[in-house]
Amino acid sequence: MNYLNETIDSLNKKLAGGEITADQLAKDTLANIKETDKKLNAWITVDEDAKVAEDLDFNKNKLAGIPIAIKDNIITDGVKTTAASHILDNFIPMYDATVITKLKEAQATLIGKTNMDEFAMGSSTEHSYFGATHNPWNLDKVPGGSSGGSAAAVAGGQVVAALGSDTGGSIRQPAAFNGIFGIKPTYGRVSRWGLIAFGSSLDQIGVMSKRVKDSAEVMNVIAGGDEHDSTVSMREVPDYTKFLGQDVKGLRVAVPKEYMSDAVDEGVRKAVQDQIDVLKENGAIINEVSLPHTNYVVPTYYIIASSEASSNLQRFDGIRYGYRAKNTKNLLDIYVKSRSEGFGTEVKRRIMLGSFALSAGSYDKFFRQAAKVRTLICNDFDKVFAENDVIVGPVTTTPAFGIGTEISDPIKMYNNDILTISANLAGIPAASVPAGLVDGMPVGLQIMAKRFDEGSIFRVADFIERQNKFYEKTPTGMEE
Amino acid sequence: MKITITEDTIRHVAELSRLEFGDDEIGKFTQEMDSIINMANQLQEVDTEGVEETVQVVDRDTVFREDKSEHWQSKEELMKNVPDEANGFIKVPVIIEKDDNE
User: How many domains does chain B have?
Assistant: First the structure.
């Protein structure tokens, strides 16, 4: 089964009409993955024994019998979950993350786990113990990261939708690089219980799909309160598909001047400006605004995210689960050797940066200062949202870069995230919708909204999708 | 103002992090950390006088729940991922430091 021309609606119709059984759909999906993944390496684990739910109800459950891909940092009962790390390469969880429980209740078929940067730390999916994933539009380019496997699986037609996670852009940047839609919901909209923690005040699970409506369908299933995660909001979850099919008349759209500066590739800026012009032609009110602390979001983010990571990753000690080093003399030796052999270079860098920022003598100067600058960044957004409904701009400064071109330069790699990490620091929802091609590679339009206003994001993204019809394009790297 | 990161600083932070770096890696790692920390040091330029810290962006107050036990997994299930076990216990090397020559 190739999903390039399918949607959840079209699959639901086929399944309900008996054109295909859910068992056959799962089999065909696995067969197609086996064939196409030679090119992409989008998967860490493909579950050959993927079970279809019993008593499928195609009327009640839109996702019934439809295969969905899961990023490999989301815990799945009985299915290996590695976070793309050597330190977890044999880890088989004994419970499901809340989002997995919800997908199972909605009778979706879970067929496997997608590749990513180790512990979601990276912007290219090159930092994986299981090798790099390739971009379906050009196999020599990165798919972005850290949810690069989920993005490539969707863009390459292996699945109709996938779950990802986004700590600093890890859903939106790969969505942009692969020409698909991807949404990071508001912090607290989707339970993080069972998501392997990276930066706990920033992490959020979200959805990636070729079509906007399909993400709305999956969001309807995974969003909402959870007694296992007290940071999840108890607010009612609206039906996100209700925001589709609307116009943009009178919508107040802010464009931050910092997001359209010379630092952004000219082609990317033009593709984004074209989408803004379309919004304007259709009655949206475009306001140029400023997010004055944009220059400081990269250092703020890397201090906060790495500090939280250094704390979260203390649990990997080689004792109760995961990789344990051989030939160790004592307990300390187990910790140090298991961690030094089990973690990859980028993860070590982040742990070290975090430990440094939290250590005596550095705490005030780095962690506390970053937490204060975070307040200023949040204030910038509050000011803009007082007079605007959404903020739009580019997702990335360039289209996808070549595999191997940035991996040796951490600072260059970190700067890839400059346009996406503010949304995580402020906890607001943000998405990427395809804007067009630049030199044959897709670029995205970013849409950000007020906390818990995912509805406005779906409204704008769906409008853009209907105007530019990017989904009609086929990824060039998948052609024979 | 530039901060200089030395190999000694990196060795100290590695110890805090329960990580170790070989003599062949430490030089390159120190250089990389030096540039990353100096990138982060740009934050000193920002005037944060009187600004509160933001450490979370949750819309709920601290949530309390009843402190009650819940039966979850069996011991066998919990032991499934243990790297080394003996008689239902997790096995680790000696905890009390021994002299290498002992």
Answer: 1
